[in-house]
Amino acid sequence: MAATDGLPTLTYVQPQKLVNTEQYDVIIVGAGFSGLIAARELSLRQRKVLLIEAKDRIGGRTFTAEYDGGKFEIGGTWIHWSQPHVWTEITRYGLSIIESKGVAAEHMSVLLDNGTKLKQITLADNWVTLGKAMEKYSDVDNVQARTVMPLPHAPFTARENVEKYDRLSMQDRFDQVRNALNMTDEIQAMLLALLSMNMQGNIAEGGFVDHLRWWALGDYDMIRMFDKLGRYKIKEGTSTLAQAILNDCQNVKLLLSTSVASVDRTKQDSVIVRLQSGDLILGRTVLVTVPLNVLKNIEFLPALNIKKQDIAAKGQCQGGTKFWAKLDKPIGHWFAMAPYPNPITMAYTDDQDGSVVVGFGPEGLLDMKNIKTVEKELNKFLPTVKVQYVLGHDWRTDPNIMSTWSWYKPGQMSSNLQALQTCEPPVFFASGDIASGWRGFIDGALESGLKSAREIQQYLDKHFTST
Ligand SMILES: Cc1cc2nc3c(=O)[nH]c(=O)nc-3n(C[C@H](O)[C@H](O)[C@H](O)COP(=O)(O)OP(=O)(O)OC[C@H]3O[C@@H](n4cnc5c(N)ncnc54)[C@H](O)[C@@H]3O)c2cc1C
């Protein structure tokens, strides 16, 4: 094991050297879940695969840190049996799930009046009332947005309606329905906290259609939606899943701590990948799986489709903070919410006795490297707790990532998503940031990687025989 952010994780792999300049069938850029699943699928079909990863570990935006006898998911965490691609892998590798306990807490703390007033309320009753407010917020068509997102895994089934609502930010929609919602202060605070938490920032910057997508994926129901988003973790850890997929790859060469600088597809029958080191590698195809917000760091010759360039330049929402805090004493099952711009918009206990809290906040408003700052923010909800340690990673400033989970800005889904998904043979694209269904999730990364692996296989079958 080695360390990321000083935290040991299973998915560190001993570096390999590039020993020759032979041509690969596929060069995959990025070893997150989308790159890993594509590497597995293509290598199992006897394709010669090179997997190049800038970090010193696989797993990308997921890694399970092993610390103080526990497992802490520093990036992507929760999955659900209704997420078809990830659940298939859970079954395939014999993994299991464990519940984050605070989601079913009896009591919750809500911060009102710009974080100055603390209210303790019952979770169950208020969760139902919040669900009703969320229904009104989402109900653009009297059928809970089913005319916008009837089939969330085929998000453009009702393209005209998607375009119509994609003009709105989440704040625009809130302003439209604010009066009709007729909410108590607590419910308004909870609604705004949940919306901000979902897009991890200022809801004026988040596209409303992405909310409707989550709503549809959550069966148009808030409690079911939340169960799918934040309740069940992989017991063995996301790193165990990433490692299992890598172990299943057949003769895939993996280069870690290696960044791709450019992809040149101007030559016939061969793509030239240039590494930051200056080394050149030849491939028949290239699969680019880097996060959307760092796509602009790779030079493409000729340039990519203009719509890809447009969103790569502007970026999707960057996301915020996620941290784990170990408390000095157990507090039982507990849940908390506070509206933006409070530095913590949502937090809940994760373990059985309630001494580990997972917290989220918008746009880097919380310095999670500073224990005292985290403790001060948690004390707004829990005045007497002390924090023993905090674990987290600043994904927003990580030069290979620059974002957390995918949330598009207004207009980006209807203008850019299909362009991002479209391959430009011999260059193909996959990412959790460009998936059709669970975009922004591990499931979406797997979906996107599987789709691209199929496209690449078809392309290679058509143009080359197996090597
Ligand atoms: C804090 C946080 C919480 C999350 N919570 C959840 C959750 O609870 N449930 C869930 O399902 N999802 C969650 N997600 C989202 C989920 O983790 C991602 O959607 C998914 O892991 C993305 O996988 P990917 O393979 O598409 O991209 P990534 O995992 O980002 O992999 C892309 C890889 O490309 C590499 N790379 C970048 N540039 C280069 C280059 N030039 N050369 C070589 N390599 C390069 C990167 O280092 C990275 O490893 C969360 C994400 C974060 C950050």
TrEMBL record:
Record key words, sorted: FAD, Flavoprotein, Oxidoreductase
Location (main, coarse): mitochondrion
Domain Amine oxidase: 33-456
Superkingdom in the source lineage: Eukaryota
EC annotation from Swiss-Prot or TrEMBL: 1.4.3.-
Obligatory cofactor(s): FAD
Membrane topology: Single-pass type IV membrane protein
Entries under InterPro entries matching the protein: Amino_oxidase, FAD/NAD-bd_sf, Flavin_amine_oxidase, Flavin_MAO
Transmembrane helix among keywords: no
A Pfam family matched in the record: Amino_oxidase
Reaction(s) the record says it catalyses: benzylamine + O2 + H2O = benzaldehyde + H2O2 + NH4(+); N-acetylputrescine + O2 + H2O = 4-acetamidobutanal + H2O2 + NH4(+); a secondary aliphatic amine + O2 + H2O = a primary amine + an aldehyde + H2O2
Binding site residues for FAD: 34, 53-54, 260
A Gene Ontology molecular function term of the record: primary methylamine oxidase activity
Places the protein is found: Mitochondrion outer membrane
One GO CC term, this protein: mitochondrial outer membrane
Residue sites binding substrate per the record: 360
Membership in a protein family: Belongs to the flavin monoamine oxidase family.
Task of the protein: Catalyzes the oxidative deamination of primary and some secondary amines such as neurotransmitters, and exogenous amines including the tertiary amine, neurotoxin 1-methyl-4-phenyl-1,2,3,6-tetrahydropyridine (MPTP), with concomitant reduction of oxygen to hydrogen peroxide and participates in the metabolism of neuroactive and vasoactive amines in the central nervous system and peripheral tissues. Preferentially degrades benzylamine and phenylethylamine.
The name this protein goes by in its record: Amine oxidase
Lineage, opening ranks: Eukaryota, Metazoa, Spiralia, Gnathifera, Rotifera
